[in-house]
Amino acid sequence: MKYDYFAFLKRERFSSLTYNKFIQEQNLYFLHGKRDKIFGNKPGDNRAVFFKHKDNVYNLCPDSFWDTQICTNGTHIKIFSFKFTLSSNFYTASENEFYSIANPIAKEKVTGLPIYKGSSLKGALRHAAVDVLEDEMMDQYFGEYTDLSEDEILERETEGKDRFFFKERSQLVKIFGNERDATWFTFKTLLATGGIRDVSKIKDILSKITTAFTNYLKKHKIVNSEGVCRGRLIFEDLYFKKVSLDVITPLDRKKRTPTRGPHYYEVVPKTETTEGKIVWFPFDLIAEGEFDEIESEWEKDRKIIKKAFDKLQKKGIGAKTKDGWGNFKWEEL
Q1: What are 313's strand-pairing partners?
Q2: What pTM, to 2 d.p., does this model score?
Q3: By the 8 A CB rule, do 64 and 2 touch?
Q4: Per-position b or e across 147-181, b if 16+ CB within 10 A of its CB
Q5: Domain coordinates of the chain in residue numbers?
Q6: Residue 51's beta-bridge partner residues?
Q7: Do the beta carbons of residue 45 and residue 100 sit within 8 Å?
């Protein structure tokens, strides 16, 4: 549940010094049990969120903050099932340093089966979803944002002009989360909006757009106070059953003779299949009690996931995709 700490501080008429310190540091303490005695303040129901400034400790949350929303309908959680069929060899590096060849494939320790981590698939799909969105920008929008500040960009996007698809990108954050170093804006963004006149300013322009988008997420409370959103999707790992051996021998471009190698790789051979599941859990809608929007949001997110899979199968998964590995065909089950 969302709770406005700043409104609480204003309502209780905290001093400007305390208020400004809270804004700058947001020094929150979640305390329970014996740790409450550290501050000599026993919270109600053995739970509280505290803010400490100097020698004073303030309980920021009323009892209603801890009220929970009970979900009685099991249809709030959806399962997106899919099937991969490899059309080329698949490889992802193992962390095992002691092996019979230099390039073993990643395997699950318990079963020894080749594995593609759900977290890796999540990251790949997120990048593919951004690519899809930027492709749509290339087809629809053109503009000039070179001389605008972050605040001016945010104002234009908030007004509904949405040249950089802030609304659509924020939907991707809801779905995939905003993990550290996730890239939401690329060179293609500027190309699509016509925002490139001076190539030397590309890095600066992208930085301004990214800052404006971060402020957009905070303004619409899509991320928490720390600027984090975990996303609605939970990915399970993918397992394959067969392992084969492939070889790469780098050639001299002029002489067409081996420069070094050969290099042997453990791979999952093409034509192998695997099935996986993605759990869609709309925690944000459930927490707000917006149950009427769950079905429509599910259909919207499901379309985004399918488009991302379509894009990803053109790019491939795992390592050595530029060498033609990791290509696959997918279908929804």
Answers
A1: none
A2: 0.63
A3: no
A4: ebebeebbebbbeeeebbbbebbbbbbbbbbbeee
A5: 5-66, 70-117+237-333, 120-222
A6: 28, 58
A7: no
Kindly indicate the confidence band of residue 128, based on its pLDDT and cuts at 50, 70 and 90: very high
- Give residue-wise pLDDT tens across range 45-70: 445 566 666 666 666 666 555 555 55
DSSP assignments along 155-188, one per residue:
HHHHTT--TT-HHHHHHHHHHH---TT-----HH
Number of residues assigned to the chain? 333
Judged by DSSP in three states, 201 sits in: helix
User: Maximum distance among all alpha carbons in the chain?
Assistant: 79
CA angle (77, 80, 82) in 5-degree steps: 160
Burial of 16 by CB count in 10 Å (0-12 exposed, 13-18 middle, 19+ buried)? exposed
Half-sphere exposure in the Cβ direction for 194 (13 Å, CA): 7
pLDDT in tens, 194-227: 555 566 777 777 788 788 888 888 888 888 777 7
pLDDT tens digits for range 81-125: 999 999 999 998 887 777 767 788 888 887 788 899 999 999 999
Closest by CA position to 144, among listed 133, 152, 136? 152
How confident is the model at residue 36, as a pLDDT? 43
Q: What is the DSSP string of 83-124?
A: EEEESS-B--B----SSSSSBPBPB-TTT--BEE-HHHHHHH
* DSSP percent split of the chain into helix, strand, coil, nearest 5: 40, 20, 40
